[in-house]
Amino acid sequence: MERRSGFILSETIAEKAQKFILRSSEEKAEAVLVRTAAGGNSAAFEELVKRYHRRVTALGMSFFRNTADTEDFVQDVFIKAYTKLRDFRGESRFSTWLLRIAYTTAVNSIKRRKEYLPLADETLLWDRDYTPEELQIRRITIETVRDSIKELPQRFALCLDMYFFYDMAYGEICQVTGLPLNTVKSHIFRAKKLLKEKLEQRL
What pTM does this model have? Predict the structure, then answer.
């Protein structure tokens, strides 16, 4: 039994190491792509748009809740990203830098409404295909979580959304929202506690 546990543990460590290596490799490849795009290569920039179109669209739908406004928003974001690409210094991941532009654009666009609703369409962030059974289970689970997040204060919902659905680290959320690190940690901690209580009431 111990040997089996040890095998599972080793396998888990190996998987984590493999994911780290893969992520590092992808980040290096993306850095080359960004530099190429910044140099005026339109094909490289089009590839960046393909990679992050769904993620920017998901953020837009959370703010605007309709396709027309979201499409305009996405276009604005990528135009801004293209014009500012030479200012990107690589001090953060490109995705973080891009979402910062997207977040600022969205907030400035809806200042009069000051409205944010948790992720409108989680399928926009899915990176792989699921079987019909997996799809149904995932939809039900995420729908329950999302409905509970809607009941949280807006400042908590936004941070929790980025943490869970966008898979962003605390530091990345700080860079996107402009909030201090301790504030982000506090919001997510309190949000997870409230979310747990709401989910327990539903289940």
Answer: 0.62
